[in-house]
Amino acid sequence: MPAWAEALRRVAAGLVLGTGLVAGAQAQTSDLVAADALRVCADPANAPMSSKDGTGYENALAELIAEKLGVPVTYEWYPMSTGFVRNTLRDKKCDIVIGYAQGHELVLNTNHYMTSVYTLIVPEGGDLAGVETLADPRLKGRRIGIVAGTPPGGHLARNGLIARAKPYPLVVDRRYQSPALDMLADLEAGEIDAAVLWGPLGGPLVKREHPGLKVIPLVSEEGAPRLFYRITMGVRQGEKVWQRKLNSLIRRHQGEIDALLHEAGVPLANDMGTALVGPGQ
């Protein structure tokens, strides 16, 4: 065989082998992802986000993603507490967590599909309805509900509000206890004067069940710690093919995702959490 022909044969063989290796590498990062269903890891009692009865907005978002992929949704239910990722995603019982904070090392994050902020919730029409920051003097001496250990606690402490604050537990099994629901019930009963809640939690709860309350997104808050977070979908570490597929889907359908979240009552902010975005802003 002429030297040039042998060289060409080797190049061709190398290309074929290389293609096989690439395909094999891709398979290693995606063969655990089910092809016949969108297998979602979710808390069964984390309303208004996820719920076993399918009424959460993360349920609706899962349905939207599954529709674009052309598959049905199935769930692996587990309380969103210690061991959630280990016993669901890492245990290969499901392939995606619909809502996960950007940068968390337990999962491989997709690109973020929303940025939201903590909110101050007060009675509609009351004397705190015009408050925009936790530094407002009108909050002095008021009893404010806050989930213990969450970032707004630092702002309450800096502004001299922590001594009278009422703490609610952070880590609970929401099948039996809901700090957010308890806090809003206490607010309506007058046991606290205001509530501080994560926007994607407080906003939809108020829209669904508490029309007499006002949600004030804290986009004007200054100083650390930050009160805005970018929310992604979480997949298993190493699942780069699956991550890229979801990134593409998010990019192409961001408008539909935004509309779904707005309808649910989630306050959406720009990427730096300094202003609200969307209808009416």
Descriptive notes:
There is one protein chain. The protein has helices at 3-30, 57-69, 84-87, 152-158, 179-189, 199-209, 240-252, 254-264, and strands at residues 38-42, 45-46, 50-51, 73-77, 96-101, 108-109, 114-123, 144-147, 166-168, 194-198, 213-217, 228-235. It is α/β, with parallel strands linked by helices and 281 residues long. Strands 1, 4, 5, 6, 7, 8, 9, 10, 11 and 12 form a 10-stranded mixed beta sheet that branches. The protein folds into 3 domains: 1-31; 38-114 and 228-264, Periplasmic binding protein-like II (D-Maltodextrin-Binding Protein, domain 2); 115-217, Periplasmic binding protein-like II (D-Maltodextrin-Binding Protein, domain 2, 3-Layer(aba) Sandwich). Helix 2 (57-69) packs antiparallel against helix 8 (254-264).
Give the SSE map.
Elements lengths: L2 H28 L7 E5 L2 E2 L3 E2 L5 H13 L3 E5 L6 H4 L8 E6 L6 E2 L4 E10 L20 E4 L4 H7 L7 E3 L10 H11 L4 E5 H11 L3 E5 L10 E8 L4 H13 L1 H11 L17
Parallel strand pairs: 1-4, 1-5, 8-9, 8-10
Antiparallel strand pairs: 2-3, 5-12, 6-12, 7-10, 7-11, 7-12
Helix pairs in contact: 2-8
